[in-house]
Amino acid sequence: MNPQKKFHLTFSFIMGAMMISLMTFVITAVNVGFTPDFLAKWGRAFAVAYVVGVPVIFFLAPMARKITGRLLGMPG
Fold this sequence. Notes:
By secondary structure, this protein is mostly helical. It has 2 helices and no strands. It has a domain at 36-71.
């Protein structure tokens, strides 16, 4: 795997973990509150969202970069 693809894949896993953990924590807290089984519910939400979110980040991040570049008038 070339270094650029390896970087993008690694970025997707790391960004996914950071963003998805924060978002699922907040949404779980809003929906169920801090109940005794909060961590179990959060963990389940994280697992499902991570499996969906990482591929989404991997495939859509390049498109988002291109759209951002066009909106800001940057060469790309």
